[in-house]
């Protein structure tokens, strides 16, 4: 009989994380298992632990950054920290990014400049998005904004 190894982790403040480690083996069940199966189960559990610990640290950092941005710009801007991280924005640029989002759109993904083609959270101009993506989709606006920032720095936002 084979079992799927499961890892249960308790990380700080009683946070419980479950992770399936797709290793078939009897090492975590009741019954005999070989040294090889036990070894594989230990490695699978360790990999699951490392991934879970990394996600936990990232979540803690997102929470701190969200609270910091909320205290400076309000929750309408701060709510975009996690999505910005998911689209590739580095931690070192997060304070500046939150300032830009506040200044350009006030945190509204549907913001549109009436005198130009600037649209979305980062108020990207149509030369950056025309026909490529919907600038009012927050994930796409942040993703293309990150690509623009990587190529030109903060120059498109007049910093």
Strand count, sense and barrel status of the largest sheet are: 2 strands, antiparallel
Q: Which structural class should the secondary elements be placed in? A: alpha+beta
The low-pLDDT segments are: 1-5, 19-26
Number of helices: 6
Terminal CA distance reads: 63 Å
| Major sheet strand order | 1-2
How would you sum up this structure, described in words?
This protein has helices at residues 35-73, 75-78, 81-86, 94-105, 126-129, 138-152, and strands at residues 3-11, 15-25. It is elongated. It is built from six helices and two strands. β1 and β2 (15-25) form a beta hairpin. It folds into two domains: 3-60; 74-157, Orthogonal Bundle (Lysozyme). The chain has a two-stranded antiparallel sheet. The protein starts with a strand and ends in a 7-residue tail after the last helix. Helices cover 50% and strands 13% of the residues.
Question: What is the fold's blueprint, element by element?
Answer:
Layout: E1 3-11, E2 15-25, H1 35-73, H2 75-78, H3 81-86, H4 94-105, H5 126-129, H6 138-152
Antiparallel strand pairs: 1-2
Summarize the structure.
By secondary structure, this protein is an alpha+beta fold. It contains 6 helices and 2 strands, in the order ββαααααα. It has 2 domains: 3-60; 74-157, Orthogonal Bundle (Lysozyme), CATH 1.10.530.
């Amino acid at each position: 009989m084979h079992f799927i190894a499961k890892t249960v982790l308790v990380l700080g403040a009683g946070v419980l994380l479950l992770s399936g480690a797709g290793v078939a083996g009897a090492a975590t069940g009741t019954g005999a298992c070989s040294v090889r199966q036990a070894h594989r189960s230990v490695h699978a559990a360790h990999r699951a632990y490392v991934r879970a610990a990394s996600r936990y640290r990232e979540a803690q950092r997102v929470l701190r950054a969200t609270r910091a941005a909320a205290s400076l710009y309000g929750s309408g801007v701060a709510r975009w920290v996690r999505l910005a991280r998911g689209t590739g924005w580095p931690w070192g640029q997060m304070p500046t990014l939150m300032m830009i989002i506040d200044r350009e759109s006030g945190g509204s993904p549907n913001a549109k400049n009436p005198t130009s083609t600037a649209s979305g959270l980062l108020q990207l101009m149509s030369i950056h998005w025309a026909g490529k993506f919907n600038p009012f989709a927050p994930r796409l606006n942040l993703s293309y904004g990150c690509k623009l920032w990587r190529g030109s720095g903060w120059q498109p936002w007049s910093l």
